[in-house]
Amino acid sequence: MQLADGTPLWPSEWTAVGTVALAAVTIATIIITIVITTQDRNRADTKLTGERARHDKEIETERARHDKEIGDERARHDKEIEDERRLADDRLREERERMQDAEQRAEASTVLITPFAMPAKQAAKLQAEMAAKLEEEPDHKIEARVGEECPVVIIVNDGRFVITNVHARFVKDSTIYQSALKQHSNVYDSLPKEWLSGLVADPAIGVPPRIGGMQFIGKGMVPADLKGVYAIVRWTDRWGTRWEHRKGDVQPIAEDEPWKP
Prior knowledge:
alpha+beta
């Protein structure tokens, strides 16, 4: 074999050329392999990074969802507990209010109201004695007219607690009369016998009181006019509730409830 200029190419020279060519091919192959390997590694790293990022995002999303579920469940559980606590508080408050109402009504029923009639002469004497003791004239003077009588109501607190702001007025037909005298009464058994004429036991009590209390005396009138006269009594209990006794019926009223027949 000859070269292009006609120079013959000897076998030894062929071997050198082959060796160089083989080395060149080998180097090229190595370079190509390195490039391909680097590209594959880069692609693998990119894919791995993407997979890792996607996995991290999935984990974060799952953690957020799980945290939200736990938060929602905790909030729902807290709300159930709060609702149950509020319901229990409402039940307890209603029970306390019911028990207090029952206790208040029971206490109100122990305020004993007894109406009767007193001779106007005796009532005028009591009023004069009270005026002398207090050194002041009464607003409504009782006239000691012969034959006239005054309506009287005795209020006795037979309950366990003090009652305050006790007031009474007398009603005749559709007219309300102010009481002329208010005083603490003596023990019932020591009252003068003449006071007890015409005593009427209040059906709301069943029996007349046997202890001291407070009494209100109205203006004098002829005995015939006493028929149909009744007393309205009001007081305040220890809880601040205002009560009214009228014809045997006891009911709570507003503090500023007007007096009506």
